[in-house]
Amino acid sequence: MDSSPVYDILVVGGGINGCGIARDAVGRGYSVFLAEMDDLASGTSSGSTKLIHGGLRYLEHYEFRLVREALMEREVLWRNAPHIIWPMRFVLPYAKGLRPAWMLRLGLFIYDYIGGRKLLPPTRTLDMRRDPSGKPLKPGFAKAFEYSDGWVNDARLVVLNATDAAARGAEIHTRTMVEDARFEDGIWSILLHDRLTEEHREVRARLVVNAAGPWVDQVLSRALGRNNAHNVRLVQGSHIVVRRKFDDPRAYFFQNADGRIIFAIPYEEEFTLIGTTDQDYAGDPHDVKITEAEIDYLCAAASEYFVEPVQRSDIVWTYSAVRPLYDDGASKAQEATRDYVLRTEPGDGPIINAFGGKITTYRRLAESMLEKIEGILGKKGRSWTADAPLPGGDFPPTGYEAEVEKLRKACPFLDLRHARRLVRLYGTNARVLLGDAKSLPELGRNFGADLYEAEVRYLVDHEWAVTSEDVLWRRTKRGLKLSQKEAAALDEFMKGLSRRESAAAE
Q: Which residues of 378-397 are buried (b: 16+ CB within 10 A; e: fewer)?
């Protein structure tokens, strides 16, 4: 008789939905095992426009429930993760010949008043000839609307959900692929492939939650035998990062003549993030990358507004991701619903699939998923995540500057920029990362910019980082600052860490 433990829930997928569901479930008392085939947030969840927003343009498609739910979540998430989420003001210039000014004002009125806004300031009208936000723009834009939404470090939001889930007892396994599953005697037996060790193992669970994002249909087909699965519409969204185009702390929301919109957002202090695109995608989500046409589109769309054109030579980095939208039959990619759909899969054995969704509503998606789980496994704890800070976020929503000062007082060897970055990524856990260090040399080897060995080891020990890409592009964005040579040295260092761990295990 098999004496291995039987988990209540096996979650497939380590993106924002999978990690959010795992955290909520384990916090209610369910036993949880999460399997992610790559790194946490290595798919859609690190490729977003990095906004906590209601989705102003979704009002045009009458998605009032989605917009209201997302608007209500803005301050909930900000309150629980004020290190990685913060308010941002957006400037929406009125462009003649596009949406009329009355429509924009009406949309923003609805936006202001259906979402339970308490801390975020309301919309106001700007005279672009006098307001500083008009300076980087062409002189034809005389009027604009300024409104509130939020910014999020998307990949860190995923990792912090996983970290909290693990602290509460969930098992989080990255680089672990679900290869096969069979349902016998009321229990799932799931065959897992550890892609680091090349070992296979079997785990057992009462329920499977399929939150594999763009791979949700592949998991159903390959591992669970649902050969005709076709539930998601894959839509590619790409972004470019350019040298800073403006000094204003506000972001821009630009309308395009084709009816689409793009954002231009202050990014990592020295850069501007421009995106996103919307086009159907038919390939393997692992292979997604920006196309030449998308680069041309984003450069041209932004150049319609900025005095200084956005050129290919300005680009320092690009990223692309595939959004797994629920296939509702919409004719255009940008019209497909961004709402989430949770569906119990018919057939032997309980499987609940998560389709679609957006990063802003991940916590509400998890609560909805737990209602379905309770219907199958029985109810345990109550909903709890609305008032539970994520790791490092245990300070007031407006308390970021005070936390930076506290860190600098405790660690005076940090310059202001370094301290600000550490609090932005780790919040109150920055002190844990720094340990007992009394000087920069005590943080160990410097890999370039302000990335030290102590931070790298913290990410390996506490946040499942395995490769230099995990550190540079998902955990820290220091990839924007390090040279290729420095990145290669970090890669070698991390390979050495894994080799030493393997030797110790033997």
A: eeeeeeebeeebbbbbbbeb
